[in-house]
Amino acid sequence: MKPFQADLLMLLVTIGWGSSYLFMKIGIDSLGEFNVIALRFGLAFVLAAGLFFRRFRKIDCLTLKYAAILGVILFIVFVLITYGLNTTTTSNAGFLVSLTVVFVPLITAFVLRKKVELKTALSVILAITGIGFLTIQLPLVFNRGDLFCMGAALFYAVHIIVVSSAAKKVDPLNLGIAQLGFTGLYGLIFSFIFEVPAWPSTTISWLAILALSIFCSAIGFILQIIAQKYTSPTRTGLMFSLEPVFAALFGYVFAQEILHGKGYIGAALILLSVVLSSSQRKSSQSKQRSDIRNSGRNLSQ
């Protein structure tokens, strides 16, 4: 797979995740936070494992180890986002979770002990500025929910980097499927401890859970892991910066949320940052992949 094709797959994933905010709001209205996570990822695992059963039954211990680690990280991300939304605004949450775009190159640079390239730095600045124009509303007041969302962005960045290392060492499809199972398992355990697990009680809740399971989880996270084998963590993070654009689009179509003038400016800046990132030379991409492989070795030690 060529890097451009991998970027297209990441774009499809981002479109699906842009719709997830709408579905999560519907699901949380009638179910507990851990319950939603358990259903979303548990059903996604059953679907993906059943569809690719012949391949999945050959999964090895190393893949399971990486999947268990990624499942923990992913579970923490969605717990932080869910509880963050209870005590902060949607605009603040969208902006702060999208700080993943900034954390990915910063963490990568820290692990590799190297400076961030000028073009990458400019892309990150454009992306985070665009996200700010698109989602933030003044005055910005930080509270506990804001801190939860910043923590989610940090763990999301770690997830992207660990996936980039793990996908080069094991079968990325089996890794993606097993990751879903572990995340759903953690959600189920916590749901039994802190909640009363239940099935959706309305048709709209079922539709929301199924959409989250099939499109946002089963398809989304598996395609993410497959695509990340052929692209870099920084480009992945920048592609994910389009998520607020698609979230705004779904909000406009299905919830009649109007995007104001500064929102269009933000969307344009985010698109510009992705184009700028995609214009990097192939030699630079090859060097970065080599550095990431070395980073993966350091992380696994």
TrEMBL record:
Domain EamA positions: 6-135, 144-278
Localization per record: Cell membrane
Residues spanning the membrane: 7-28, 34-54, 66-85, 91-112, 124-142, 148-166, 173-194, 206-226, 238-255, 261-279
Membrane topology: Multi-pass membrane protein
InterPro entries to which the protein is assigned, alphabetical: Diverse_Substrate_Transporter, EamA_dom, EmrE-like
Signal peptide feature range: none
A UniProt-annotated Pfam family: EamA
Key word Cytoplasm present: no
Main localisation: membrane
Keywords recorded for this protein, A-Z: Cell membrane, Membrane, Transmembrane, Transmembrane helix
SUPFAM superfamilies: Multidrug resistance efflux transporter EmrE
Protein family: Belongs to the EamA transporter family.
Full protein name: DMT family transporter
Naturally occurring in which organism (per UniProt): Planococcus liqunii
Organism ancestry: Bacteria, Bacillati, Bacillota, Bacilli, Bacillales
